[in-house]
Amino acid sequence: MPTGHAAAAVTAKSAVGRWLAFVGLGLLGGVVGGILIELSQDFFEFDAPPDGAADTQGILNAEQKALVSAAQSRTDRKNVPLAMGFVGLAVGTALGLAQGLAGDRADDRNRPGVVGASMGPARCSLRDATAGLAAGAVCGAGLGALGGLVAVLVRDQLGGWNTLDQTGQPDPLLVQLHTMAIQLPSWISIAVAMGLAAVAARRGAVGVRIAGLAILAVLFASVVYPTLASLLFQMDDPDGVIPGGSLNRLFWATLNAGLIGLIIGRPGKPAASGPAPSGSQGSA
Description:
The chain is mainly α. About 65% of the residues lie in helices and about 0% in strands. It has 6 helices and no strands. Mean pLDDT is about 80; it is low at about 105-120 and about 270-284.
C-alpha cells in the first residue's frame, strides 16, 4: 500500500534522525567532558613531595618510591573523582537529554518495541526531556565521581602488576589489560547512569537494556582506545586512571561518550505487523 510505505519511510527517517541526535549529543558531551577535565585541574590538590623523596641524582630508591606513591594515591583519591564527576556531568546531561527526547515512553503500549531510539512517531514531552536531562546530570556526576574513586583504588591494588615482557620492554597486551582495568570503573559507572536517566525519562524497562548497551559500548572503547591513542598521541601515556596529555584526554572522553550515544541510540527492529485489515482478506 502506498500509505503504508510512506508511513514506514517517515518512521525510518525519524528513527535515523534520533539516532544521529544520540551520536551528536554523545560526542558533544565527550568534548565538554574532556574540556572540563582540564578546567577541573584548577581545583586539584597536590601534596608536597615527601622529605628526601629523591637523592642528588634525582633517582628514587624503594622507600622513596613508596612515599611518592602514597602521596600520589592520596591526591588522586581527591582529584580523580572530581574530574570524572565533571565528565559524568557533561556526558550524562547530553545523553540524558537525548533519552528524554527519544519519545519511546513506557506507556506507549501500541508502538513497536525498541532498544534505543524508537521506530514509531516521537512521543516526548517537556517533562520527559527535563527528567532525562536532570537524572543524567545528577546520576552521571555522582556515579562518575564514585567510579573515579573506585578506579584509583583498583590502580592501587594493581600497583605490582608487571606490564613488561621478558626483554624489559612494555608488553602491549599487558599494558592494554592494565589500562582497561583501571579506566573501566569510571566509564561503567557513567554507563549505568545512562540507564537511570532512561528510567527517569519514563522509558521503563528499556533503562536496563540502555545500561547494558552503554556498558558494552565502554568495553569496546576500552579495547580500541589504547591502540588508537598509541598511534595518534605517541608522546602521551594512555595507561592511567585518566590518560596523560590534553588532546589525548579529549579524545578519550569523546570516544567513550560517542560510542555510548552510537550504541544506545541505535534504532531497534520494528515489531511484527499485526493481522491484515479485514477488507484485504479473503479475496481469492
